[in-house]
C-alpha cells in the first residue's frame, strides 16, 4: 500500500460523517452500560486525547501502541494508544494528544501532521471523555519510551484493522478485581480491548466500512 495514497484516502473519509458510536459499540465489553454513550450527560468528566499516528516503514504502514506498566490502578498493564489528560496549558485537544505522545513515546511534535478526529468516547472507570486525534509522519519516528508510563512500545501494522474483520471475544481478568467478556484486536500476542479497541473499531469502520450488524 502506498503511504501517500493511504493518507489521502483516510483524510477524505475523516471529513465525511463518522461511523460513531455504532462502530464503538461493536468492540465494547459485553458488560458495558449503554449509558456511557450519552455524552451529553458526561460534561463534567475530565477531558483527554489520544494520538493515532501512522507512519511508513519498509513499504508497510504502522501506528504505535503502548503497554502500560503494572501498577495499582484501573489501566494497569493494558495496551493503549499514547495520550492522557488535557492540561490547562494545552491550547486544544490536538496539543494534548501531541504533548502526551511526546512525553510517553518521545515523538517530535513538529514532524506530525494532523488530518482529523474520531468520535469522542467516555471511559467510565477513570471518568474521562477522550478524543482520538489522527495524524501521520512521513518518516518512522525515533521512539523513546518514558520508563514510568510505558512498559513497552508496540508497533502495530494497520493490517490488524484492515484484515482482521471477524470479531474475536475473550474472557479478561481486570487486575485482581473482576472478570469480563470483551471483543479484542490482537498484535504480537497481546489483546487490545476496552476503550482502545472501541476507538480502533471506529477507525476500522472508516477504513473498510465493515458490516456492523
Gist of the model:
This protein is an alpha+beta fold. Helices cover 23% and strands 32% of the residues. It has five helices and eleven strands; from the N terminus they run ααββββαββββαβββα.
Question: Could you describe the 3D structure shown?
Answer:
With 213 residues, the protein is α+β, with helices and mostly antiparallel strands. It has a single domain (3-208), classed as Nucleoside Triphosphate Pyrophosphohydrolase. It contains five helices and eleven strands; from the N terminus they run ααββββαββββαβββα. A hairpin with a 3-residue loop joins strand 9 (168-174) and strand 10. It is globular. The relative contact order is 0.23. The model has no long low-confidence stretch (mean pLDDT 91).
Amino acid at each position: 500500500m502506498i503511504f501517500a495514497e493511504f493518507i489521502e484516502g483516510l483524510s477524505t473519509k475523516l471529513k465525511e460523517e463518522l461511523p460513531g458510536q455504532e462502530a464503538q459499540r461493536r468492540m465494547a465489553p459485553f458488560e458495558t452500560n449503554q449509558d456511557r454513550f450519552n455524552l451529553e450527560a458526561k460534561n463534567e468528566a475530565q477531558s483527554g486525547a489520544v494520538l493515532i499516528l501512522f507512519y511508513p516503514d519498509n513499504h508497510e504502514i504502522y501506528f504505535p501502541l503502548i503497554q502500560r506498566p503494572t501498577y495499582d490502578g484501573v489501566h494497569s498493564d493494558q495496551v493503549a494508544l499514547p495520550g492522557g489528560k488535557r492540561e490547562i496549558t494545552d491550547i486544544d485537544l490536538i496539543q494534548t494528544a501531541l504533548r502526551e505522545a511526546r512525553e510517553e513515546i518521545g515523538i517530535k511534535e513538529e514532524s506530525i501532521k494532523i488530518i482529523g478526529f474520531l468520535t469522542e468516547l467516555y471511559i467510565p472507570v477513570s471518568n474521562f471523555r477522550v478524543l482520538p486525534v489522527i495524524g501521520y509522519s512521513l518518516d518512522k519516528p525515533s521512539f523513546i519510551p518514558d520508563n514510568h508510563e510505558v512498559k513497552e512500545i508496540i508497533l502495530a501494522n494497520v493490517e490488524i484493522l484492515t484484515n482482521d474483520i471477524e470479531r474475536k471475544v475473550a474472557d479478561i481478568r481486570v487486575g485482581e478485581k473482576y472478570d469480563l467478556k470483551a471483543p479484542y484486536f490482537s498484535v504480537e500476542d497481546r489483546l487490545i480491548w476496552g476503550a482502545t479497541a472501541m476507538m480502533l473499531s471506529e477507525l476500522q469502520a472508516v477504513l473498510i466500512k465493515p458490516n456492523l450488524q
